[in-house]
Amino acid sequence: xxxxxxxxxxxxxxxxxxxxxxxxxxxxxxxxxxxxxxxxxxxxxxxxxxxxxxxxxxxxxxxxxxxxxxxxxxxxxxxxxxxxxxxxxxxxxxxxxxxxxxxxxxxxxxxxxxxxxxxxxxxxxxxxxxxxxxxxxxxxxxxxxxxxxxxxxxxxxxxxxxxxxxxxxxxxxxxxxxxxxxxxxxxxxxxxxxxxxxxxxxxxxxxxxxxxxxxxxxxxxxxxxxxxxxxxxxxxxxxxxxxxxxxxxxxxxxxxxxxxxxxxxxxx
Length: 268
Hints:
- By secondary structure, this protein is mostly helical.
- The chain has helices at 8-33, 37-57, 61-82, 87-108, 116-121, 129-158, 160-165, 170-187, 189-196, 203-209, 215-240, 244-267.
């Protein structure tokens, strides 16, 4: 009986999980530290608008999702800073706008979008070579950015006001991280979908925060926790024949509570 590891689709799933965990570890650590998880969820759900437009007008849905996610992230930031709109209200408005546009154009697409559930809930076993190439390129760009600017990113993440008083390029860092967050969300859509992707930017980071003492340690810890969750989710999906994306998130959350219990046990 051939091993599941011999199948190309499973090898792609393992490679995609690794790249996604490295990427989300860097971006997600910043997102969690800046308390931007809800904004990340808003960008993820707003990206459905680009998916619907892509299906209707005939261009790649993920390209449309990337444009919508980036524009929604920048607009949330602009509304909350320049127009006196509360951040949560701006997120809710862009969140529902993107979802509404996506649903309307998906409905208007001839034959409807038969693959819409794949964008909403993901399919980690459907990751392609093109997906891996795109994720690899984005991981490389993000890694270079963090390697060159880590002290600046850490300063902005922990104390934005202090960074402003020191004359640091805070706005440039925030804009760059907003774009990277949006692109990270879109690159992971095939794995866990629009509904669940924000979990990859928060749950492994929360697990790592139980033990990490530095920003750098949280990055590496969340990468390890995220990949452990992906492997556990793939195992659940294989043995119980259940959706892979949901299994990955479930395994990640169970890992968080297990680590939390272990930490409490050692404290006692």
